[in-house]
Amino acid sequence: MPTDLLHHFITAIFIDTLPVLPHYSQQRILYVMEPINELDTAMPKVIDTKLLNIADIRPGHPFRSTIIPTPSAPTHAVQVRDVNEYGEIETRHLITTELKGRKQPDYLKEGDILFVAKGAKHFSTYVRQVPEQSVCSPHFFIVRIQPQHADKVLPEFINWQLNQSFAQRYFINSAEGTLYVSIRRKILEDTPITVPPLVTQQRIVSLHRAAVTEQKVLQQLIINRQQQLNVIANDLFRN
User: Fold this and answer.
1) Are both 95 and 185 inside the same structural domain?
2) What contacts 207, CB < 8 A, 6 or more positions away?
3) Cα-based distances in Å from 147 to 53, 56, 124, 197
4) pLDDT, tens digit (0-9, with 9 covering 90-100), for 150-159
5) Structural domain of residue 148, as residue ranges?
6) pLDDT-derived band at 44, boundaries 50, 70, 90
7) Which residues pair with 78 in a beta bridge?
């Protein structure tokens, strides 16, 4: 990502609330452009690097076949289908299963990034809250920020960056296969990454969260309007 794209940064200012449902309200957002140079004059410069230099990357749990649901099992399994349209893990949909083998599972931790390496779309999701004993399917790579960089790199920011057009073009150009497209571990490790000052990362993450919240609110408005039109249509044609 060219560093001059980070010359300006959008901050979110919450100015009032917007009723969406009788029991629900949502804040509207005003975006204000502020030069980073004025805000972060004492901060270090933007760093361009590769993902492998700031994070460890490992494969998901090696399930040998289809993950079999076992209601009484202690381990939860995150699958690609558990990631919703907003890029969030739907924890209430996770199945539990029995893990075989003597090797200690690599349980997911808050702050991990799960990258979908197999399939038509290659994207990542941020692990915010999952049950204590959770693993992911082998369709994912687990990206975990290295301890020595934990005070300089926000995993949620890296997750956001992996889903942006610059990284997505890299994955499209690097993917292998025809019917079954995949991203090799080496390709993911070599993904170009831009690391701005921590304060900039925090602001981008905040803005991204606000944008996702807006999407959810707008989608609910669309659903509500369609339901209203359906009721009107039913009343009209019944009469």
Assistant:
1) yes
2) 10, 11, 12, 31
3) 12, 10, 20, 17
4) 999 999 999 9
5) 50-195
6) low
7) 136
